[in-house]
Design goal:
Helix content is 21%, strand content 41%. With 145 residues, it is an alpha+beta fold.
C-alpha cells in the first residue's frame, strides 16, 4: 500500500498554521474537537489504481481520497472563519494535484458550531527518494485522475 497520509497532512498543516494562528490541525478527531477552530484531514480511502497494476505484483500507483472537515465556533468567526480556513486548505490540496470531489456545509448536530466538509482525490505514485542538499528526501508524485 502506498501511504502518503503523513506527507499530505504535513503539507497542509505547514501551510495553514502561519495563516491561522490558534488553528488546531488534526488527522483524526472526535465529532467535535476540544479547541476551535479546527481542521481535520484524514485519509478516507486508499485503493490500488487498477489501470496501472504491474505484472510483478508491486503497486506503483494508488487512488487516494482525503476528507477535510473544518469546524468553527459560531460565536467566534463562525461560518466566515470556517470558510476562510476551508478555502486555504482547498488551495493547498488543489495546487498539490488533488481534485475536489465534493465540498459542502457541515451538517452538525451541535448548535454552537458550523463548518465545511470536502473530499479530495488523486492518484499517487509510489514514493521516490531524491537527493536534496546532500540529504535523501521522499517525494510522492500526485496526479489528478
Amino acid at each position: 500500500m502506498i501511504d502518503a497520509e503523513n506527507a499530505v497532512f504535513g503539507r497542509v498543516r505547514e501551510e495553514l498554521l502561519p495563516l491561522f494562528p490558534g488553528l488546531s490541525v488534526l488527522n483524526d478527531a472526535p465529532d467535535l474537537p476540544e479547541t476551535l477552530p479546527a481542521l481535520i484531514l484524514a485519509e478516507k480511502n486508499n485503493v490500488s489504481y487498477a489501470r496501472a497494476l504491474a505484472g510483478d505484483g508491486n503497486e506503483r500507483y494508488a487512488r487516494v481520497t482525503y476528507l477535510v472537515r473544518v469546524v468553527s465556533d459560531r460565536a467566534a468567526g463562525g461560518k466566515t472563519g470556517a470558510k476562510s480556513i476551508a478555502d486555504a486548505a482547498d488551495r493547498v490540496l488543489c495546487r498539490t494535484g488533488f481534485q475536489r470531489l465534493s465540498f459542502s456545509t457541515l451538517s452538525g448536530k451541535d448548535r454552537g458550531v458550523t463548518g465545511f466538509v470536502g473530499e479530495y482525490g488523486a492518484v499517487i505514485a509510489a514514493p521516490e527518494t531524491e537527493d536534496k542538499n546532500g540529504e535523501p528526501h521522499t517525494v510522492y508524485r500526485i496526479y489528478r485522475k
